[in-house]
UniProtKB/TrEMBL annotation:
Entries under Pfam families matching the protein: PCuAC
Keywords: Signal
Presence of the UniProt keyword Signal in the record: yes
InterPro entries named among the record's database cross-references: LpqE-like, Lxx211020-like, PCuAC_sf
Entry keyword annotation includes Signal: yes
Protein name according to UniProt: Copper(I)-binding protein
Organism from which the protein derives: Palleronia aestuarii
Signal peptide range in chain numbering: 1-24
């Protein structure tokens, strides 16, 4: 856990006029330990990992992602079957119960950055906006680690 490495930015200037009350509630959502791996060029998608904590009293639903780094950021889940074969499938939404933390981590849930607009270079960072069904948006700065990184503590 290195919280000082994570810049949590709450988007105050929203382009599409989300109600002020929704913004206040987004304080209940904490995104920690976000990181991504460097990519080789732009032909393969990038992956982003993080922990999303719901400090509030109501469930929150992550419905979408946005970043200028990729045209199609999607939530995916990797599952490994009994034969040890892994496959990924899109996850439409993630519901986070009150007091719960959902981990996006290698081998499980992740944000897949499809159609990269530029290579992901180690030691750079980018902004990723998480959209919640009724709590507005939260934008995090995601540091790009080495191509073989397993997590922010490597
Ligand atoms: Cu994926």
């Amino acid at each position: 856990m290195k919280p000082h490495r994570i810049a949590l930015l709450v988007a105050l200037a929203l382009p599409f006029g989300i109600a002020t009350s929704a913004l206040a509630d987004s304080d209940d959502i904490v995104v920690e330990n976000a990181w991504a791996r460097a990519s080789i060029g732009t032909s393969r998608p990038g992956a982003v990992y993080m922990e999303i904590r719901n400090k509030g009293d109501e469930p929150v639903t992550l419905t979408g992602l946005q970043t200028d780094l990729a045209m199609m950021p999607k939530i995916h889940r990797t599952a490994t079957d009994e034969q040890g074969v892994s496959s990924m499938s899109p996850v439409g939404e993630i519901v986070i119960a009150p007091g719960e933390t959902v981990a996006l981590e290698p081998g499980g849930l992740h944000a897949m950055l499809m159609q990269l607009q530029r290579p992901m270079e180690e030691s750079e960072s980018f902004l990723l906006t998480l959209t919640f069904s009724d709590r507005g948006e939260t934008t995090v700065e995601v540091p790009i680690l080495g191509i073989a990184a397993r997590g922010p503590e490597d």
